[in-house]
Amino acid sequence: MKVLVIGAGFVGSAAAERLIGLGHEVTVTTTTEAKVAPLAERFGNAIVLKGSDRDGVHAAVAAADAVIVTAGPSAQGSMTPEGRAKTYREILVGTAENVVSAPGDAHIVCLSSLSVYGNAANHLDLVTEDAPVTDSDDPSPANFILMEKTYLAAGERVAVLRCGDIFGEGDPPIEDKVKMAHQYLGGSVPFSGDALLYRLQVEDAANAAVHAIVNKLQGVFNLTHDEVPPTNSTLFDTISLRNDLPALEYRGEIAGPTSPISVKKLIDSGFTPSKSYDPALDELKNA
């Protein structure tokens, strides 16, 4: 099978390696010309491609049997509403529009975010894929929701994976991120303090994307660990206290569920995230 991986970053590179190991022919994309040669050496095929390049996306998708879209906004540009407004629509929705309008019938898997639920499902005991999504006008959930609708309009050839906060090798540890929030963001973050902090290890993210491609999954799937985590404020403020720092300010611009997330639908499809939860966090749940 010929698989196009749009975005050879954190998750895309790991998914490409897994697909090649399974014997598939993979082409990865980057927006930086200087990265093409090392990516081609690593994966065999690499091209420069921006999601906003309609003709380029059409040509690349038309040549593929399947497409994994892992390209997303950078964390650096996501900390303010202005930063999110500047890039989210182009990167998320623009790419989706060009992928689904490409010739052919390639199976599509895209990574979305659990932030689409916002606080709209907090009245539920368990947040399943059928739960209501937020009506927030913040550029993050609003554009993730529009991106999902764009992909899902293509019908049964699409799977959307709603991911927790992705972490792994090469990503700063969460303790360092809290320190950076104090150092560079003035101790203020755009998240809700009472939201449960669901995370997703990069290998789980990549393996789930490959699972969705190989098994031609259809529809929406929550993708994170099955265990209930502590809240943002519980974990972040514990880290701050340990480092003699004040508690963070939670601006609540990007809300998140306070009810547990169900991953049963994905598990029932044959894939169980196994690397994403740190048992050391159990002691914080009831703090």
UniProtKB/TrEMBL annotation:
Name of the protein this chain belongs to: NAD-dependent epimerase/dehydratase family protein
Gene3D superfamilies cross-referenced by the UniProt entry: NAD(P)-binding Rossmann-like Domain
SUPFAM superfamilies for this protein: NAD(P)-binding Rossmann-fold domains (SSF51735)
InterPro entries in alphabetical order: Epimerase_deHydtase, NAD(P)-bd_dom_sf, NAD(P)-dependent_oxidoreduct
Organism of this sequence: Nocardioides yefusunii
Pfam family, one: Epimerase
All copies of domain NAD-dependent epimerase/dehydratase, residue ranges: 3-222
